[in-house]
Amino acid sequence: MLGICRGRRKFLAASLTVLFVPAITWIYLFAGSFEDGKPVSLSPLESQPHSPRYTASSQRERESLEVRMREVEEENRVLRKQLSLAQSRSPAHHRGNHSKTYSMEEGTGDSESLRAGIVAGNSSECGQQPAVEKCETIHVAIVCAGYNASRDVVTLVKSVLFHRRNPLHFHLIADAIAKQILATLFQTWMVPAVRIDFYDADELKSEVSWIPNKHYSGIYGLMKLVLTKTLPSNLERVIVLDTDITFATDIAELWAVFHKFKGQQVLGLVENQSDWYLGNLWKNHRPWPALGRGYNTGVILLLLDKLRKMKWEQMWRLTAERELMSMLSTSLADQDIFNAVIKQNPFLVYQLPCFWNVQLSDHTRSEQCYRDVSDLKVIHWNSPKKLRVKNKHVEFFRNLYLTFLEYDGNLLRRELFGCPSEADVNSENLQKQLSELDEDDLCYEFRRERFTVHRTHLYFLHYEYEPASDNTDVTLVAQLSMDRLQMLEAICKHWEGPISLALYLSDAEAQQFLRYAQGSEVLMSRHNVGYHIVYKEGQFYPVNLLRNVAMKHISTPYMFLSDIDFLPMYGLYEYLRKSVIQLDLANTKKALIVPAFETLRYRLSFPKSKAELLSMLDMGTLFTFRYHVWTKGHAPTNFAKWRTATTPYRVEWEADFEPYVVVRKDCPEYDRRFVGFGWNKVAHIMELDAQEYEFTVLPNAYMIHMPHAPSFDITKFRSNKQYRICLKTLKEEFQQDMSRHYGFAALKYLTAENNS
């Protein structure tokens, strides 16, 4: 404590020096500019040689004074620089001696101007109590609905997690879509000291549906009004954020501002940085009533306990009803109603410094809010144009946003040292499973991959599909990585039905995919394709995990288990729906086999019928799949019989059989122990056989494998002996597990393997 006070005395001395040295200097200069009791002008007009007062001595004196002025100005510049450095070091020194204090920016509680937010002085006294306890939980509320908002909010969360040093509790007011996406994302993200609670936005619609709203956010843009009623009654304060926010500092600094609220101040808001509420943007522009420029509600500090005591619900409802009689609808959703309430009750507001909500809207004045980009705390992309908005510093803002957009979210799984985390059953089970593995095992990395939890973002793009009412609908299921992206358009042209895809991408690659998809007319015209991002982690391609993710998120009763390198024949979707009825797949355990062929040509005139395919097969343009490399994989399909077959026929399972099949959605998952190349499909077909599925070949169906460069995993398999040894070990363990699970009937798999 003594060290802090000494530091502050030095700080005060430096401040006084900067203030008094210029004053003394100018007194000296002012006194020195008198000659015979009369002022000597420094005007260049009066210092010409023809002036009667011009003398050699006065010229020398003037030059001496000017030199002295420059010296004093340079000394002042150095002192100001030292003072600035002392200011920047002071909070860090304070944190070092008081571990419970994070940081606290001084704001303004008045309504002077946007520039008031630039100055952030430290006016605390020696021995000030910490503003934010080290392990104090910070509560954040966000309204999030739909596919796009669920994607946008991830960037906001990343920016908060990147800077944070406190436990966080996110309160997400979400519709069914956002809840499904974000619940899976956070469950698989497994970030320590982060808690998520969901509140059903659809149940809140009736609370605000009576308010006409023209804003693009729709009905969900009004739901911040009912947070006092929605959030837990014991929650006293919360930071409310829009999904298009990016943090450039620790959110604890904003949380600390709650301690500055006085009297009846219950809302912390930044002044609106456009002329919207002044009503002069265009002719007949008539905004809702507001105090001056009004306030922006992209960032709100809510004192919930006091708001409830003030009967906030009644307050905003009465105001909205009154204003709607003349305004008819809101233009800026909840922001209009917040401002109308504040207009009548200005004492409710604590005005935050404008750097807590730098608004990049179409008519923004945000450039007056900061002198330097380092002053910024929060950036708000509150224009429908988002990253395309015009601002002289937009490149800096865009780069900051893109940094978090493409930042590896796995790196944010860091512990908060000294802050105990709540017990997480999933995390504890994972640690237990990993602890049981032998790290000295040469196949340790293979075994570990089975338990790796990959961060997963479901429905990365808009998805809209209702299965056919006749219960015959079939979804094509596949998985891919970035190097197979070019297959998507072709598959969509060949298969008009629903598709479920799991994509194994990094955060940066996910954004590349997004730009690729948004630039494709073919992909953007299809709303029945579910894109599920599984984020990269570890050294293996988790092929069976990807398949399981894609399988799990289908909405049809049947699925076609394919691979991304295959193009289905034209019309296969409708043919499979008819086959489902014909073969009574709903009431029997069947796996319908779609025969697989391949071409070695990158440019192929795709056969439009079975007859055309057989002709190409005879000419050597097409081949049965992998006949020259892995004959056993598809030999049981019996291609010789298929050539002349006109009705479905049954085939028996054989060792290493791995056909592409149509099954009910309740079929078993793929075994996750198989990663990269080798045995990933073989094991699944073996389990279908163990569960007594009947394999039936469809006589008029086919699919063609398109050529591509060898994958990284097959290269490792071919070049790495240890890789092959581990795969063999995993195969044996899988067969033993099958014998234990399915008993005597599973012994044939061991026998078949030994004979093959």
Automatic annotation (TrEMBL):
Q: InterPro entries this protein is in? A: Glyco_trans_8 (IPR002495), Nucleotide-diphossugar_trans (IPR029044), Xyl/GlcA_transferase (IPR051292)
Q: What does the record give under GO molecular function?
A: glucuronosyltransferase activity; xylosyltransferase activity
Give the residue ranges for region: Disordered.
Answer: 42-65, 83-109
What is the similarity comment for this entry?
In the N-terminal section; belongs to the glycosyltransferase 8 family.
Q: How does it sit in the membrane?
A: Single-pass type II membrane protein
Spell out the protein name for this chain.
LARG1 glucuronyltransferase
Q: Is Transferase a UniProt keyword of this protein?
A: yes
The membrane spanning regions, by residue number, are 12-31
Q: Enumerate the catalysed reactions.
A: 3-O-{beta-D-GlcA-(1->[3)-alpha-D-Xyl-(1->3)-beta-D-GlcA-(1->](n)-4)-beta-D-Xyl-(1->4)-Rib-ol-P-Rib-ol-P-3-beta-D-GalNAc-(1->3)-beta-D-GlcNAc-(1->4)-O-6-P-alpha-D-Man}-L-Thr-[protein] + UDP-alpha-D-xylose = 3-O-{(1->[3)-alpha-D-Xyl-(1->3)-beta-D-GlcA-(1->](n+1)-4)-beta-D-Xyl-(1->4)-Rib-ol-P-Rib-ol-P-3-beta-D-GalNAc-(1->3)-beta-D-GlcNAc-(1->4)-O-6-P-alpha-D-Man}-L-Thr-[protein] + UDP + H(+); 3-O-[beta-D-GlcA-(1->3)-beta-D-Xyl-(1->4)-Rib-ol-P-Rib-ol-P-3-beta-D-GalNAc-(1->3)-beta-D-GlcNAc-(1->4)-(O-6-P-alpha-D-Man)]-Thr-[protein] + UDP-alpha-D-xylose = 3-O-[alpha-D-Xyl-(1->3)-beta-D-GlcA-(1->4)-beta-D-Xyl-(1->4)-Rib-ol-P-Rib-ol-P-3-beta-D-GalNAc-(1->3)-beta-D-GlcNAc-(1->4)-(O-6-P-alpha-D-Man)]-Thr-[protein] + UDP + H(+); 3-O-{(1->[3)-alpha-D-Xyl-(1->3)-beta-D-GlcA-(1->](n)-4)-beta-D-Xyl-(1->4)-Rib-ol-P-Rib-ol-P-3-beta-D-GalNAc-(1->3)-beta-D-GlcNAc-(1->4)-O-6-P-alpha-D-Man}-L-Thr-[protein] + UDP-alpha-D-glucuronate = 3-O-{beta-D-GlcA-(1->[3)-alpha-D-Xyl-(1->3)-beta-D-GlcA-(1->](n)-4)-beta-D-Xyl-(1->4)-Rib-ol-P-Rib-ol-P-3-beta-D-GalNAc-(1->3)-beta-D-GlcNAc-(1->4)-O-6-P-alpha-D-Man}-L-Thr-[protein] + UDP + H(+)
Q: Which PANTHER family match?
A: GLYCOSYLTRANSFERASE-RELATED, XYLOSYL- AND GLUCURONYLTRANSFERASE LARGE1
Gene this chain is encoded by: Large1
- List the CDD domains: GT8_LARGE_C (cd06431)
Pathway assigned in UniProt: Protein modification; protein glycosylation
Q: Name one GO cellular component term.
A: Golgi membrane
* Compartments, as annotated in UniProt: Golgi apparatus membrane
What single Pfam family name could you report for this chain, choosing any that match? Glyco_transf_49
Name the UniProt key words of this record, in alphabetical order: Glycoprotein, Glycosyltransferase, Golgi apparatus, Membrane, Multifunctional enzyme, Signal-anchor, Transferase, Transmembrane, Transmembrane helix
* GO BP annotations, alphabetical order: protein O-linked glycosylation via mannose
Q: Where is the composition biased (Polar residues)?
A: 44-58
Q: Which domain of life is it from?
A: Eukaryota
